[in-house]
Design brief:
By secondary structure, the protein is of the alpha+beta class. It is about 55% helix and about 10% strand. The relative contact order is 0.10. The protein binds flavin-adenine dinucleotide.
Amino acid sequence: MVGGEGCTLGVVLPDYAVHDGAIGLDWYAVDPNLRFLLDRHLPEAADRTFAEDHVARYGELVGGPIAERAEITDKHGPVLSRYDQWGREVDEIVHHPTYLESKADLVKAGFVGLPAHAGRDVPAVVTASLAYLVCQAETAIYCGLGMTAGAASVVERHAPDAVREEFFRRLTSLDPDEAWEGGMFLTERQGGSDVGANTTRAVPDGAEWRLYGDKHFCSNVDAEVFIVLARPEGAPEGTRGLATFIVPRVLLDGSTNGFRIKRLKPKLGTKAVPTAEVTLDGARAWLAGDTSGAREASAPEDGDRVSRSPSEPTHKGGLNRMMELVNGSRFGIALMGLGIHRRSFLEAAIYAAHREQWGQRIDRYPLVRETLVDLLVELEAGMALTYECASASRGMFGDDDEGRLLRRILVPLAKVRATREAIGAASQALEMFGGNGYMEDWPMARQLRDAQCHTIWEGTENICCLDVRRAMRNDNAHTALIARVEAALDAANGEKVLAETVDAVAATLDEARQAIAHLETADTDLQLLHARRFTHLLADLAEGALLLDEAAWAMGRDGDARKAVVAGRFARRRLAPPRARGILDDDRTAIDLFDPLVRYGPIEPADAA
Ligand SMILES: Cc1cc2nc3c(=O)[nH]c(=O)nc-3n(C[C@H](O)[C@H](O)[C@H](O)COP(=O)(O)OP(=O)(O)OC[C@H]3O[C@@H](n4cnc5c(N)ncnc54)[C@H](O)[C@@H]3O)c2cc1C
């Protein structure tokens, strides 16, 4: 049985053959897995209805005009206009109208301002779903608007009274004419992953500060409010001496604020959002909190970019303010990866349903089927991990402390996994288009260019792997993950169709426990050497367990074994690969269950075995 009260699975079965491409479709309607996840993570009817009202509205907006314009913006990126006609330096960024129109549409739709205007608690899975949809069109536009949401939250909590209300109101405004945007400046030429090497100085100026220094990567550079890392004069070297400041680009009276754009970066992708090198020359700034933290914080010993744990002793100013922002944006970047992954799948599925070779659609060929199925399996695995991360702090599976701890370790796992997978997904989908895929007038070239950015910004893959290590050493966050995996195993226990996957997840949990015990006593060099391997082991474990959990839930609610097939395929790919790469097993899943898998149709348990 598929259906039942509140059930949205199976309402729409996308038929890829009737579409020409992804642009112009309702991206919510063609994504039953997104609705499934909202059902799963929003058990309260009022939350689910709220989600439906807001997320569904984005399907047509994002799949239509936002996606259409993104293709144009990419070919007409922002330009720096340094001087006006009088020869005065203005450092203005000129955008193509398509970018401005899309931003205005998203501001009006409440993309940034929803939590401030909804009049109720907005579940994180709702804002995550909006971001996931927008990122299918253009991760660059989400970069700017996502940082705006982050800056608004820093302003709301830490700005001085004199500016808080006005800045927050503007940053969360639903009126494009008065809405402001935000950005964050950490990176300097010498201080990338190692932000402790930063040299931008903060000089006290009464109750305020003046900032002096160069920032090397400043995205959304024409935003109005920046959250900036700088070192108060007299503060110690390294991360210990850093503090977080709120810096307007233009002052409330309209004058520029000691802010000079040196040049726009010539980027490979994410072209819509301007990324610049900036000089701060006496920019007026407010400390986010007070300076005591800049002297109290202790430096990480292994050169991690600002990956401080939220549960380390609270510092009143310092790096922790910026860390709140960085953790939020790392989660957002996982959503960028998922957005590109989903778009890649959708474009590839549509193309494969149209393109004919040797007299038949290429999606009739086994290798093509397998590529599409595995694109989808990995996507659903990444979604399971990232949506768990979104709902973790709501205490759905335990108390709030446990949820926070779970989120602590799931954020870097999700960022590493989703951004790395997106590059492979975009590349596979591009190849599905044959030679056309390599051309800039087809949709995949931009997605591949954009995808490559996301493993780097907000902390490279290596740095996020070191953050996983820190989450374990400083917070014991892995205990929350292990508890969650055990809960998933319990939920799936006894479900015949899941038995093989339960065994694979349990065996991987055992391996992870052994790895943790081994690393606890290993030399530091070896701990660091294994950090990436270990992160991927935990990501595999988490994704396998969470897919299992979803599969058990779908069986219980709908009697549908489709998710069980997805979980089983994931387990065979990642957790317990069969002998001789599966050749001896003659597993026909990708051929025989292709339609219900890629079109999200129901699968009988008997067919899933
Ligand atoms: C398009 C784009 C936009 C950006 N926008 C912004 C922005 O708006 N604001 C901002 O502050 N920054 C921004 N960045 C900067 C970005 O966050 C940094 O590039 C990133 O953190 C890496 O720093 P880095 O470039 O100095 O590389 P490095 O730190 O020099 O790293 C080089 C390599 O060394 C590795 N590495 C470094 N240290 C270690 C270690 N201890 N162990 C193992 N490996 C290590 C890294 O993983 C990487 O592969 C942007 C970057 C890009 C590409």
